[in-house]
């Protein structure tokens, strides 16, 4: 027999059965309370509990999935990107200021990620340089900073000048310094190309620094690297912020992801960048790009913040061999 006619019969059967049971109720002569929506189901306390737990489970699931959906990943650690970007409207104040500088204002603000600018060898050389130089000092809290331009290095709860140490004078070799400069130049070209501005209108600015982040408890406000901020407000001279990641999220450390906050759009969705060795992130430094770094929970995270300004008077020069 064709299955559709079996189905049809079964359906007819079940409709009939339903009618029968309805008839049974109608034929009853007992006095029963009348409920508008039928008789109230009687649930044992055990069933009530199991149903409540089930409902709670469903609610928890809905909450958990909606929480996880609230962030979108701009760049995953495991994936290699030639160019990944998001264009956004510039903050009005930022636009007003940057317009003053000829050839330096972007057509649109935004964020760019590329894994094709800095090679793995360059990233490894810079990582070794950071590890070597930072071993001469280091914060007691979770964030150590090294500025090769000024020589500033976190030391306990203060900063020292690494070049004033005998061992610090030769801490950077000529070859390492050459790579640092090549990387800086390549990033400058990339910023100019992505944001469609004149590379000559961009100038390296202060602070440009290496960072080493871990899960130690903070000892000074400098150690609290996880706060939300806008770079233009924290560092006045910034117009374009770039970051070079020197090691890998989920491999060398856990936590330490970078979050762009999208509260402005009222979506409460964050946009995440997962650090990857040699990955470069470039973004306009105005209030269109508020961000924070997630606290590292395991391991040590290394990165370089390379900053550019359109204001010639705020330019700094590349570091020289000591
Ligand atoms: O290291 C990072 O990913 C971001 C650092 C940062 O926000 C900054 O230097 O202003
Ligand atoms: Fe920042």
Automatic annotation (TrEMBL):
A molecular function (GO) term: L-ascorbic acid binding
One GO CC term, this protein: membrane
Keyword Oxidoreductase set for record: yes
Start-end of Basic and acidic residues biased regions: 9-34
Required co-factors: L-ascorbate
SMART domains, A to Z: P4Hc (SM00702)
Keywords: Dioxygenase, Iron, Metal-binding, Oxidoreductase
Fe2OG dioxygenase domain mapped to chain residues: 208-311
Region (Disordered), start-end ranges: 1-37
Stated name of the protein: Fe2OG dioxygenase domain-containing protein
């Amino acid at each position: 027999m064709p299955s559709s006619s079996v189905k049809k019969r079964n359906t007819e059967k079940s409709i009939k059965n339903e009618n029968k049971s309805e008839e049974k109720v109608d034929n009853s002569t007992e006095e029963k309370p009348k409920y508008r929506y039928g008789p109230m189901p009687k649930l044992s306390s055990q069933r009530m509990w199991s149903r409540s737990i089930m409902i709670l489970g469903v609610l928890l699931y809905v909450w958990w999935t909606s929480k996880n959906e609230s962030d979108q990943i701009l760049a995953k650690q495991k994936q290699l990107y030639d160019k990944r970007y998001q264009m956004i409207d510039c903050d009005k104040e930022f636009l007003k200021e940057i317009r003053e500088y000829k050839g330096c204002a972007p057509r649109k603000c935004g964020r760019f990620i590329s894994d094709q600018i800095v090679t793995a060898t360059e990233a490894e050389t810079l990582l070794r340089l950071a590890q070597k130089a930072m071993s001469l000092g280091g914060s007691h809290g979770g964030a150590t900073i090294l500025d090769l331009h000024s020589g500033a290095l976190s030391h306990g709860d203060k900063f020292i000048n690494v070049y004033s140490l005998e061992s610090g004078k030769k801490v950077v070799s000529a070859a390492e310094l050459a790579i640092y400069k090549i990387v800086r130049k390549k990033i400058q070209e990339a910023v100019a190309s992505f944001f469609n501005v004149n590379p000559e209108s961009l100038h390296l600015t202060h602070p440009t620094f290496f960072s080493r982040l871990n899960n130690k408890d903070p000892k000074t406000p400098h150690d609290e690297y996880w706060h939300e901020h806008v770079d233009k407000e924290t560092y006045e001279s910034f117009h374009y912020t770039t970051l070079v990641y020197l090691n890998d999220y989920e491999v060398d450390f856990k936590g330490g992801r970078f979050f762009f906050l999208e509260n402005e759009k009222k979506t409460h969705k964050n946009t995440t960048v997962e650090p990857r060795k040699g990955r470069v992130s470039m973004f306009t430094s105005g209030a269109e790009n508020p961000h924070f770094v997630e606290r590292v929970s395991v391991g040590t995270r290394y990165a370089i913040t390379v900053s550019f300004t359109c204001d010639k008077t705020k330019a700094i020069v590349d570091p020289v061999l000591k």
